[in-house]
Amino acid sequence: MSDRAVHLAASVLLSYPDERLAGALPLLEATVAELEPGEPARRLAAFLGHVAVTPPAELAEHYVATFDLKRRCCLYLTYYTCGDTRRRGMALLRFKQAYQAAGFEVVGELPDHLGVVCELSGRGATHVALRLLREHRAGLETLLRALREEGSPYAEVVAAVRATLPPPTERERRAALRLAEEGPPVEEVGLEPYGHEAFVPVQARGGSW
């Protein structure tokens, strides 16, 4: 199984489902079909099957209702452990520095977006992406649990990503359970220094609870 291929497919599927998703479906289906049999391939195939029979407008409506309107289904990994606190700014900076060390910058999204982390892997820095995912395992587990409780098909995509990681430790299980019960810290602050940018190689730029 190629973790990179799994992450590449997930990065597309975790993006807003516009016309680009429809155009990418044949390639996504071919990529998933070539994966070794196992949980990631099975999960991604299940979600692609859902996409194939669901009207685009319904897909978009569900995406917004799930990820934009429900805090507990947030795709931004540092939100779970930091909330909207000053600590989150430093956590986002660590993500950004990890991308830069791998030769990439983020443009168009915050660097802790799960789809962006998966895209980093798909572009070749799989070891960096896996490290970031492991460091934020509690948030990933909390997101997956929330999506399953909501009955969202996107749980399949997140489960496929999780399956590329080692089994969670007891400490990680406890942390995820605590997050699910208590939610992230609350301390409203601005995140202006970490505004949205696009994800491109450095070389290409010349350097609810």
3D structure, described in words:
There is one protein chain. The chain is mainly alpha-helical and 209 residues long. The protein has one domain: TorD-like, CATH 1.10.3480. Helices cover 63% and strands 5% of the residues. It contains eleven helices and two strands. The chain has a two-stranded antiparallel sheet with strand order 1-2. Helix 1 (3-13) packs across helix 7 (114-122) and helix 3 (39-53) packs antiparallel against helix 10. It starts with a helix and ends in an 8-residue tail after the last strand. Residues 188-208 have low confidence and may be disordered.
Quick structural summary:
The protein has eleven helices and two strands; from the N terminus they run H-H-H-H-H-H-E-H-H-H-H-H-E. With 209 residues, it is mainly alpha-helical.
Layout of secondary structure:
Layout: H1 3-13, H2 19-33, H3 39-53, H4 56-68, H5 77-82, H6 86-101, E1 104-109, H7 114-122, H8 126-135, H9 137-150, H10 154-162, H11 170-182, E2 197-201
How many extended strands? 2
Q: What fraction strand?
A: 5-15%
**Would you state the CATH class?**
Mainly Alpha
CATH architecture: Orthogonal Bundle
Mean pLDDT over all positions:
87
Major sheet: arrangement of strands = 1-2
Helix content: 55-70%
CATH-defined fold name: TorD-like
Name the overall outline: globular
Biggest β-sheet description: 2 strands, antiparallel
* First-last Cα distance: 36 Å
Which radius of gyration do the C-alpha atoms yield?
16 Å
- Give the number of domains: 1
Q: Spans with pLDDT under 50 lasting ≥5 residues?
A: 188-208
Structural class estimated from helices and strands: mainly alpha
Please write the string of helix (H) and strand (E) elements: HHHHHHEHHHHHE
Count of helical stretches: 11
